[in-house]
Amino acid sequence: MIIIIKMMAVLSGRKKKHSRKRDEILGLIRSTTSHPGARWVYERLKPLFPRLSLGTVYRNIRSFREEGELASVGVVQGEERFDGRVQPHPHFICSRCGKIVDIDGSMDKNQGMPEGVIIPPDLYVDPRKTVLYGLCGDCRKADEKGMTTV
Ligand SMILES: [Zn+2]
Ligand SMILES: [Zn+2]
Predict the structure, then answer these.
(1) Which residues of the chain have pLDDT under 50?
(2) One domain for residues 107 and 144
(3) Which of 20, 49, 78, 141 is the most exposed place for a label (fewest CB within 10 A)?
């Protein structure tokens, strides 16, 4: 029994030690609308936690996802991107720079799709997985040819 209590003390102690790091990871992802990847989080927290590894960031993000604290937007340009806004909403993804933008609008009106898009009435669109692709404003400005080069 004493051994068990001691083990629990060690475990809870370890948990406490990691909680600030965990809070920072979650807080950082929630503080931005840029839908960052684990590397973005790692680069920002590394100066605060010199012993932080990219693997630790991944592990914490995965557990936050399992707890419903974070959502995944999916893999964009080879890296999984995350969202601190867990309520279902569609996304716009720039095909060139990988920028992810939240698309707002009433979900009951045309299932959150832009006007002109007709969803057959027997289909249900999962807003969490609705993604529109194109070019963001910055990429359009940088490229006068615009849509032709997507
Ligand atoms: Zn772009
Ligand atoms: Zn989002």
Answers:
(1) 13, 15-17
(2) yes
(3) 78
Contact in structure between 127 and 89 (CB atoms under 8 Å) = yes
Same domain, 72 and 1: yes
Q: Does this model's pTM top 0.85?
A: no
What is the distance in A from the centroid of ligand 1 to the CA of 134?
Answer: 8
Cβ-based neighbour number of residue 139 at 10 Å? 18
Residues 71, 129: one domain? no
* Residue 16: predicted pLDDT: 47
Burial of 63 (0-12, 13-18, 19+ CB in 10 A): middle
Ligand nearest to the CA of 101: 2
Q: Which ligand is nearest to the CA of 34?
A: 2
CA of 89 to the centre of ligand 2 (A): 6
